[in-house]
């Protein structure tokens, strides 16, 4: 049984303000929840319509009805279980050899896709401007398909960070160097800007090099590739040297 | 003024059944509607909260209120205008040198992203199994950002088509050839399967070669890249020879 109070608290976790207040976030669906078991994410409790499926006697799993699940799920079509997890304070971090840097990414689906992409290429850390969408947003968590457990996502003052890093800061710009002939530096930050406005002028000033994915189509449209797709194609190319 | 009948007809265009009944589909937002002017898409009429912005005296533009727009828009946050366009019967088509072939793609956002990607790389034709999501679905149209005007999307019996084509049929499979060493054939079909189930067994039988994007991350998760992202990375690599 879920108390009215618990339902209210869990529902409030849709908003960053309340995630920060309670230091909690939600993970939905057994498939992603099972990935938590092999990660450092700490689970407070799990609510499930079918606790036996999870088969974790060491965890506090509460049996709930389909109706209760609907009340606490953030999804249009709720899955089987909802895990309530602790948000850990951001740890001290240091530069890795290849990182993504996000300057004001707003769409939760984009951030989730970018985290999943980072995980695929073994990129262990993503550095975000403070106004980038929150990694604990339920839509971001869903879109990562569990990858958020393997990629360290940190939030910081980008201008300060980019001024001090020893990595080469690489931006994307149609006037930049063709990604197919670009020589990958040993240590790099690939910087991705906001969906509509691109990078902030302050960020642009701290770019060392720009790269671009050539357009082969005849379209004269100004619409470029979606930010996560552009990142995917660029990473695909940067990693081609490791084949 | 919009009549109740018109509102009902336009709202019904959310469903494939009614799009086929009326031979009509909707395009929303001036940005994409302006792309129609340079395409072969035939516009029946436009409803706009600000007709002057469109500045096309040759077109039948009806001035509507914000409230009326809300009624006919398929979007959560309606834009400025809605164009009602004619669905043309599928023309005779023949193979192009590089094509995408979709076997049961269900998510409108994925199809839209794939069309946009094709447009970027100058791929002029996408061949879909008959159960692939409808290109005229409003969510597909939105996700293409106008690219649907430049890419020919055809629906056909895939087994029959793949058996008869002279293009090399290339599938994706983690057991396939590494995309970084794969030698691109002159004429090819890149086949992308359903989001959850991949390609149908009947389709798999007609594959000539498989390619894969190597995973550099340590994750043991079975979750692969999203189908459109995988397509983007593969195309990025196939086109590297044209740099």
From TrEMBL, chains A, B:
Q: SUPFAM superfamilies in the record, alphabetically?
A: alpha/beta knot, L30e-like
User: InterPro entries recorded for this chain?
Assistant: Alpha/beta_knot_MTases, MRM3-like_sub_bind, Ribosomal_eL30-like_sf, rRNA_Methyltransferase, SpoU_MeTrfase, tRNA_m1G_MTases_N
GO BP annotations, alphabetical order: methylation; RNA processing
GO-annotated molecular function: RNA binding; RNA methyltransferase activity
Transferase as a keyword of this entry, yes or no, is: yes
Origin superkingdom: Bacteria
Identification of the protein by name: RNA methyltransferase
Species of the source: Chryseobacterium endophyticum
Q: Please spell out the taxonomic lineage of the organism that makes this protein.
A: Bacteria, Pseudomonadati, Bacteroidota, Flavobacteriia, Flavobacteriales
């Amino acid at each position: 049984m879920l108390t009215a109070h618990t339902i209210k608290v869990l529902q409030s976790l849709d908003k960053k303000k309340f995630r920060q207040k309670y230091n909690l976030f939600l993970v939905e669906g057994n498939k992603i929840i099972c990935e938590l078991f092999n990660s450092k994410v700490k689970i407070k409790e799990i609510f499930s319509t079918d606790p036996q499926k999870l088969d974790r006697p060491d965890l506090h799993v509460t049996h709930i009805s389909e109706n209760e699940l609907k009340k606490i799920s953030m999804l249009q079509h709720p899955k089987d279980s909802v895990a309530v997890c602790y948000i850990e304070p951001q740890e001290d971090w240091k530069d890795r050899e290849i990182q993504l840097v996000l300057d004001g990414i707003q769409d939760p689906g984009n951030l989730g896709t970018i985290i999943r992409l980072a995980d695929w290429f073994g990129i262990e850390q993503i550095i975000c401007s403070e106004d980038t969408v929150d990694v604990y947003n339920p839509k971001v968590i869903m879109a990562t398909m569990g990858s958020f457990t393997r990629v360290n996502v940190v939030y910081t003052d980008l201008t300060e960070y980019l001024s001090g890093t020893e990595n080469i800061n690489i931006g994307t710009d149609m006037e930049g160097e063709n990604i197919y002939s670009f020589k990958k530096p040993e240590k790099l930050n690939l910087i991705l800007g906001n969906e509509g406005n691109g990078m902030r002028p302050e960020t642009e000033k701290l770019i060392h090099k720009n790269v671009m994915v050539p357009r082969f189509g005849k379209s004269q449209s100004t619409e470029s590739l979606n930010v996560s797709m552009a990142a995917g194609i660029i990473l695909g190319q940067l990693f081609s040297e490791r084949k």
